[in-house]
Amino acid sequence: MNRITILAITFLLVFNSCKINKTIIKKEITVTKNTGKTSTKSANVSILQKTFVIDGLNDIAHKIWLYLPPDYTTSTEKYDVIYMHDGQNLFDNATSFVGEWRIDETLNELYKNTGKSFIVVGIENGGEKRIEEYTPWKNEKYGGGKGTIYINFLVNELKPFIDKKYRTKPAAENTAIIGSSLGGLISFYGGLKHPEVFGKIGALSPSFWFSNKVVKFAEENGNQKNTRLYLLAGDKEEAIMVTDTENMAERLLDIEFPSENIKTKIAPEGKHTESFWKEEFLEVITFLYNL
Q: Strands 61-62, 64-67: parallel, antiparallel or unpaired by DSSP?
């Protein structure tokens, strides 16, 4: 890719960020409230008693959701770990924004069919502070920019806590970071920034539009030889989501990110919704973990 093409992509990121669909922004800042809906979380999902206030980020006590494999209490095995954002939306319809991802039901069924198990750590977002938590750079209109603090918390505090308390496989090759929308952006950032910690990245409908700095970041950090990356967008999302995702994949390949370690999917009829990401989750981890 020549310099003119790179400049063109950067221009499009800046231009399109000014006209991004308002429904996407609404999702990014919506605060999940208690709706009185019936809980749907499985018995092997819990919320840790310990909460975490992330130093330098905000004064919100973040709850941590934990999915343990069906065989965890009857086994001495160690498990691969998946770190995910927006913990409110992953396991329980009662706490979700507009529907849960059904991570627990999906993984329980996977274990039943294949015997494969994971630990999943779901970090709740900070509600109206979500944008600042999941963005490494500021946006002139929407603010943000504290994502590095959030990722440092995962790397330096939360992951060591989980590895010490539970039977994990702590190596990067056994550890994934997965999220959607701004959660996809921060997963992309965190995984490439810390390949020694997160060897697998699921960036679902990633909000690359939020800052044109993501292009330079990818150029400086994207030449990873061992990281596996799944990029997803839906063709019923805003067109910028599709073009940004495809352009990012092309840019990574240009700087010699191994082609066998990256998968880019543009899903027919895919929309910017939890129901879309729920349906795609199993395929994402199937690629990342070679299931």
A: unpaired
246 closest CA partner among 234, 255, 236, 258: 234
Please tell me whether residue 206 adopts helix, strand or coil conformation. coil
Q: Is the dihedral of CA 49, 53, 54, 59 positive or negative?
A: positive
Of 97 and 217, which is predicted with more confidence? 217
Q: Are 181 and 30 in contact (CB under 8 A)?
A: no
Kindly give the residue spans of alpha helices, DSSP state H, lying in the chain: 3-17, 22-29, 103-114, 130-133, 147-153, 159-165, 182-193, 213-221, 239-254, 274-288
- CA-to-CA dists, residue 149 to 29, 44, 142, 217, angstroms: 19, 30, 18, 16
Q: Are 73 and 97 in contact (CB under 8 A)?
A: no
Alpha carbon 232 to its chain centroid, in Å, reads 11
Angle between helix 239-254 and helix 213-221 axes, rounded to 10 deg: 30
Q: CA–CA distance from 73 to each of 11, 108, 233 (Å)?
A: 53, 14, 37
| pTM of the shown model | 0.89
Q: What is the pLDDT of residues 15-42, one digit of tens each?
A: 444 445 545 554 554 444 455 678 999 9
Burial 61-98 (b: 16+ CB within 10 A, else e): ebbbbbbbbbebeeeeeebbbbbbbbbbbbbbbebbbe
Do the Cβ atoms of 90 and 101 come closer than 8 Å? yes
